[in-house]
Amino acid sequence: MTATTTRSIDWKRFSDAIAGIEIIRDATQVAKLSKDYYTYSPLLVEQLSDKVGDLVVRPTSEAEVLKVAKACVQQRIPLTVRGAGTGNYGQCIPLQGGVILDLTKMQAVKWIQPGIACVEPGVKLAALDKQARETGWEIRMAPSTYRTATIGGFIGGGSGGIGSITYGQLRDRGNLLAVRVVTMEDEPRVIELRGDDVQKVNHAYGTNGIITELEIPLAPAYPWAELIVVFDDFMTTATFGQALGDADGIIKKLVTICADPIPGYFAALRSAIPPGSHVALVMVAEQSLEPFKAMVKEWSGSICYEKSAQAAKKGTMLLEYTWNHTTLHARTVDPNLTYLQTLFPYDPELKLLEHMYQHFGDELMMHLEFIRVAGCVLPAALQLVRYSTPDRLHEIIRYHEEKGAFIANPHTYILEDGGRKTVDPVQLAFKEAMDPYGLLNPGKMKAWEMRDRS
Predict the structure, then answer these.
(1) In whole angstroms, what is the distance from residue 17 CA to residue 64 CA?
(2) Does domain 109-220 have CATH number 3.10.129.10?
């Protein structure tokens, strides 16, 4: 038996069962809390614009989450978990209505020890970072939505970000240490996953468990200077990014490359960046500035913007022009733009990247984020696409894949069709045990839907 239609749900009975827990019924608020930044994709706009939940529930504790889970199971009500809703693929959009479980009020930082923190899922990354830095540590990586994103949402729907140049991606062993998860069984319970078992719920869109607590590793905190380096030629800029990523002695947190005309979309930075420039946006530890500047000189670059770590605490944060924020700023100027997510194979000479840059020209504007994958630094591209038709978009994706580039498709809400590309039997088995009625975020896990039809 799976989720019921929302028309057959006794909502009074549900409300009575969770008495004392905040419920939001206002249609405007429910609609708002049913969405994320899926509008980046014209394909997802067509598929998801009319999808909304029936009501929103905001628990403040694990005990309240257990109560909500039980009430949903009793009537087979679909339940979709959300954090701040800063994802881009419809991860938290309910396909079958039901309950939106908003965990943003679970904001406790339970403890911080050297190199590790224990937190509730609604803790904002910036807030956690502030507390951790007071002890000499900081979070390892964060999305560009750092100020508003929650740690639970980042683990459930994210993959990496600022800091991935050093620490890789969330899926890498050691980047998530433990989680507590509420199940959707007849009698919901709390289980703890540690070590490699965390992969059962890591980047699973909340389809197989409700995360109520996390233990995450921390990194030594550095004073991060922010700089923009300009170049006249894109491939020089890109190879500078590769060389900086490979420069193990220079401590860095961010290496972002944007081809002209992308910098022109950055309104607050426009006065600092000469028109027609290709740029590298970087975060470098202040103690590494001298060798970094020597490297810029060696590559014939020019620093047009520099903020000390102290100055960077105020006003514009450079990281908010990188990763998915690059697309956000561009779409503010031109809403017809969309994007891709491409992982180029390791090649210090960047030959395939150069081919794509030349082949597509102005149709694809190059935006690179250098990250560490299996010990090698390579470019992950979030190219801006001048969108025309779905067929053309799929043709662009096919061309990349045929040439050997990996596409994590941002134009699908299906877990396996995005970055995973294959069915994860571990996550499926975990869902079968923890969510036997398929109530958690239904319609997002292809493996479950295929099983349900067989």
Answers:
(1) 11
(2) no
